[in-house]
Amino acid sequence: MLKCGSQGAVTLPLATIAGAAFTLSTVTVDTRGLKNPCIKFEFASNVVTTAAVISLNFQVFKQCKGQLTPIPVGPIWTFARLVAVTDSNSFSFFVCDCDICDEECCTYSVVATVAGVATVGVTAINNATLSAIVVDNTDCY
User: Quick one: CA dihedral 66, 2, 10, 111, positive or negative?
Assistant: First the structure.
């Protein structure tokens, strides 16, 4: 099964404080009917910096039925500009989640968090997309 999530964008203004978090894209995945589901998430975006010094942490979070707080999935991915640069770069990563109960419907989100100190310059994260490829690992039993 292939699921494509919402497309998002955000512009971080000058002096955005450390710890500020922005949800970039989400996708909801329903694993009902699968015996041992495993999901590969692919995130892609375009990061445009204008005279910017910035460090951003990207991470996938999931929130399933009955959960009050989203939980992290996989590692943190970092995009950084250590000197003021005007540039445009693609930024992408993938992560897998195989720790899923059958008969579960979860919403996955990619969140970007400003790391370190406040930002310098302006940064835009454009065309942020999250997609999910869901497989049934019935061979594991």
Answer: positive
DSSP three-state, residue 75:
strand
Residues 58-88: b if buried by 16+ CB within 10 A, e if exposed: bbbbbbbeeeeebeebeeebebebeeeeeee
Cα–Cα distance for residue pair 108/102, rounded to 1 Å = 16
* Residue at token pair 């010094």: 53
pLDDT at residue 13, as a whole number: 85
Which DSSP symbol is given to 134?
E
pLDDT at 104: 78
Pairing of the two strands 8-12 and 2-4: unpaired
Among 27, 52, 24, which Cα is nearest to 112's?
Answer: 24
Spell out where 5-70 has E strands.
Answer: 8-12, 21-30, 37-64
Q: Is 17 helix (H, G, I), strand (E, B) or coil?
A: coil
3-state secondary structure of 139: helix
* For range 74-100, the mean pLDDT: 93
* pTM to 2 decimal places: 0.90
